[in-house]
Amino acid sequence: MAKGVWIVAEQRDGALRKVSFELASTARKLADQLGEEVGAVLCGSGVEAMAAELAKYGVDKVYVADNAALEPYTTDAYAMAVAKIVKENDPSILLLGASAQGKDLSASLVGKLATGMATDCTDVKIADGKLCAVRPMYAGKCFGEIVIDTFPQMASLRPNVFTIVECAKAGEVVKFDAGLDAAALKTKVAEIIKEAAGKIDVAEANIIVSGGRGMKGPENYALLEELAGLLGAAVGASRAAVDAGWRPQSDQVGQTGKVVSPNLYIACGISGAIQHLAGMSSSKYIVAINKDAEAPIFARADYGIVDDLFKVVPALTQEVKKLLA
Amino acid sequence: MELSTFSIGHEGREVFWNAEHFEPILFMLTFVAMAIFAYGVYRRWLMWTAIGKPENRTDDRNERIKALLKNGLLQIKTWADPYPGVMHGLIFFGFVVLFFGAAFDATEFHVAEPLGLPFLIGKFYLFFSFLMDLFGLAVLVGVLMALDRRYLTKPDRLGYKGEPDNRPDDAIVLLLIAGIIVTGFIIEALRISVTWQQTPWEVWSFVGWTLAKAFTGVSPEAAKAMHKWVWWTHTAFALGFIAYIPYSRLMHIITTPANYFMATRKPVGQLEPIKDFENAESFGVGTIEEFTWKQIFDSDACTRCGRCQDGCPAYLTGKPLSPKKMVQDLKDYWLEKAPGAVASRKEQLMASGEGSANINPKLKALFAWLDKADKIVDENLPKGPEPTEKAMVGEVIELDELWACTNCMYCMENCSASIEHVPKIIGMRQFKVLMEADFAPELQLTYRNMENNSNPWGIGAHLRADWGKELGVKTLAEDPNVEYLFYVGCAGSFDDRGKKVSVALAKILQTAGVSFGILGTEESCCGDSAMRGGNEYLYQTMAQANIEVMNGYGVKKVICTCPHGYNALKKDYPHFGGNFEVYHHTEIIAELIEKGKIKIKVPVDDVRFTYHDSCFLGRYNQLYDQPRRIIKAIPGARLVEMERNHEKSFCCGAGGARMWMEEHGDRINDARAKQAIDVGAKTIAVGCPFCLTMMSDGLKFHGKEEEIAALDLAEIVWKGMGLEEEKAPVEVCQA
Amino acid sequence: MNIVACVKQVPDTEAQIKVKGDGSGIEEGGIKWVMNPYDEYGVEEALKLKEKFGGEVTIVTAGPARTMETIRTALAMGADKGIQIDDPALYNADAYATAEALAAAIKGVPYDIIFCGQRAIDDDSAQVGPILAELLGIPQVTFATKLEIDGTAVKATRPIEGAAMVIATSLPCVITATKGLNEPRYASLPGIMKAKKKPVDIKKAADLGVTGASKSKVAKFTPPPARPPGKILCADDTPEGKAAELAKLLREEAKVI
After folding, report:
1. Which domains are assigned to chain B?
2. How far apart are CA B543 and CA B575, in angstroms?
3. What is the ipTM of this complex?
4. Which of C16, C188, C234 sits opposite B434 (nearest CB)?
5. Distance (Å) from the alpha carbon of B439 to chain A's nearest alpha carbon
6. Does the beta carbon of A118 lie under 8 angstroms from any beta carbon of chain C?
7. Which residues 185-244 in chain A show a CB within 8 A of chain C?
8. C189/B435 Cβ within 8 A
9. pTM of the full structure
10. What are phi and psi of C215, to 5 degrees?
11. For the residues B597-608, what does the mean pLDDT come to?
12. What is the pLDDT of residues C208-231, one digit of tens each?
């Protein structure tokens, strides 16, 4: 009988990523309800020291695969290693982060473990001794409660949604041989390209800070660039700003520019004509900062600030700095 | 008739005075000139008929003859522009009169006199003399005006982007005309200088009489000798003129009137639908052969007058498109392609024997002879440029030109040769979109949005009826027994700005007790942007969906707020079985005001309104008056016209699917907004949601959005009716 | 080159999604069905490879009769033939069962490369491509924004947080496509007309030797919590106060920063 709530910890460049702690805390909660242990799989090269950190958030056992071939992350090496240890120990629940790496790895594991998974969950709970995972579907237009009939019951958790709770446990390190067969490894990382902040393409950005005619001039976009830099966001522009020559055409959001759907769209000094809305209204959250309370953008905004953007944006930048510190 | 037979009371002159034994030579020269002329026309005829798909342009003959007389004989289209109108009128009417004069002279000499029935005598002769001199002078003035315009004033429309487009031919023609007139006057003056004492009445030939004084010192013998020389020069010029016609811009004497006769009889802007998508092998116009013969003939009727360019919104804002240049480029391309096409057509006819089977043997001999002549001419003529392997769409007509057109109809409406530019552009766009699927990505997005949600923004189709929910506007599904269908259109349904117009109109109609309903979510996009953007397939899908629903409810009368829907429903839907009485809301509102059903009560204090003519209301549907009548019904409103209004109105830049495409460089809407700002308007009234967006954006561009309002007439009227309290300003913070 | 592109028919992004009264699924009436946008990137990339290297593009999908329209869309874009797995057993299949069926169908055709969308915009599960690769025993690159092929060597770029990884692998492989990979083409009209005559094989689960049994299921669909109406922030009337309130809400309520 499958037993244990496991997570796959995520680390990059020698540090655990925040989602790992979210996973650990959540696993702890589920394990306590089931009366089972929390196990974490940690892969990489020279990562053993991170095990202790996981223990702080409630991990009982950390299964460490220390292997040069596991650094940097590749889908097949990780999937091979994790599948091996999971098959050996037969946990009942396996949680991963719905991060870029976690989404990639988890789906591969589903294939290797021949099981089911709920992707990008916003809530997980135990019902009748089984995992019940709640996740948005149809781009959030409805939610589904997923139950899985096979083991491990897998779920990937949306980052930044689950709370981190400290709960020190032993964090016993169990080293295991990843069992990597070099011949079977068919992918390798040829290169990692770091993106300069602020240079992210608006079409692909998760957060966009956008400026319109209300920016008054090209020089004022420095305000938005600073905020975008902090948020890892792209800087967008309305057609009016592009027309005025303040911003390049490639930054234009709207019907005749780029159609975007980021998680957060911050519209500064943009009135929100339909031509602009058509390009960004599917954003998950919309923030409008505009002096004109009548601007149509406020009808679409989740959060609106009716005030001078030249005062609000710098203040917001300071607040974000504080939050990220 | 001898000079001595004339006297006071029997005024006249000796026709062909001083020209003994001239007849054989004159007849021979005339014959040569006519032959050269006829041969030129024949060669051109072969070229006109060698390329292009068939199209019937000889139906409805009475109307066509009327158009020919109106625009050909009375020059109605040419008069529309004063300077060139007068210029061309002087030359044209002068020539017509002089032509008849020359014919009178010839008839008098060769027919009337031999029969003993001279008619160029007495008062008629005096009048005739006066008229000839007057119109001769008119032609000369016209030529001087033309020379001034082409070589001194040089308006941009005679060139392209500041570069003059003068060809040697232009000068030759003008000088030839001037030469004919000047030599004519000199002949007259020399004759009068010899005979004036016997013929004092020649003072009626006032130009010749005045000029004769210059020859006072010349002996009669010398004058007679000079007269002979100048007379032959005059004759050479005149015959040269005739012979030169088919080889020069003078060809427009034939092609332009022909084009009036063959001008489309369809309602303005109506497009011929593509009929059989399943079995057609190609769609749109990708090669010159895919134009109809008439579309090609158009380019030969163009006189490069530049009226089209003069109001083309794309051209005037620096885009590469000029309707004139496009037509000329097509003409050059046709001239390159035509000889090859003529040759292959001849071969075809020879091979099939068809061309000669039913022809009279004499004619057959003539054609054989002409063919020989053709060969000799072809071999000896300086070779034209080798036919280029250029693609017509993309190289001859560049894509930036093709897509710059707003379909505003200025060029067609103002063309003095009845050339049809817009269908050519749409045909070529159809080729790019339907055949090659090669067009702007933002337009692809728009089409996908139309396909998936039946509106260009791609907003969820289920939201289409939401604007009217609070007003209790019923759908036809709820209540089909209404007089009017209010076809709301995409802007009125989805655009927050456009929704305000829909709401205002609904309230006006409700107040006036007009019974109406909407289709709600059963309504589809009208498809105008798809059609004008070359996506005929998508357009027809949407048109058919609308027609099916509307016919299902037995709809008879339709009100549209968007002129694009209005025009499509009115003119293009009948092709697919959608026959409705379609009204624009300004027509309905103007009538409601005039019938006293609604009243604009709230006075404005001497506010300057200007009205921006939507192309699809004005030029497409001649709805110029109703919107203006509405403004005049507002107490205290002052209607000021922008410089470009009515038929010459300037497009907002959104038509022809341009609404959905990025515009680079100076924007048309900014230019139009400037024109409104320049007349001091405080309110720009419009009757089109696209114009509304464009004018609002233009005002913002000029930083005038606080001072000047762009409003739809429905909004203006609803506000003026004073039935709704002004909404309190938006509460910013509810504590 | 033999290219396979897997596609799924999904409701249009703007479609209204209504949960059935009993929570067993969504109401399908009135929905406009389209090709999953991420699959379009896959189809486009497949067509580009065909244009470059020659070969054939096969479209594979699982879904009910209406799915044929989506296959025709891909065929109109230029794909050569299609396989439709239409079996009621698979209509509500999870990612694993779907991938199993697709894998079984793909095994029957020669393939050098297989494209999938990174996820379908209906169930958003992002699993089918990777499971397919595992079942076929070939490598995979997910979320590809760039793809280069030289002989059998494959280089694909995929974004990770704050960076992009260039992954090297070899054919045959599975690529899951995402925005940025290309701009899907608009089908030409002759393409649309020709698509009607291109061959599409319709198969049942049994033809492929699969049962369609899922590993997981959606036990219950629920409508999303009503989204609160937009808030005008004014806890404090100063710009600084408003900014602080916004930052807090973005962090704690929206959880987006």
Report:
1. 58-262 (1.20.950), 288-435 (no CATH), 453-593 (3.40.50), 599-720 (3.40.50)
2. 10
3. 0.92
4. C188
5. 13
6. yes
7. 186-195, 197, 201, 203-204, 207, 231-232
8. yes
9. 0.92
10. -90, -30
11. 90
12. 999 999 999 999 999 988 877 888
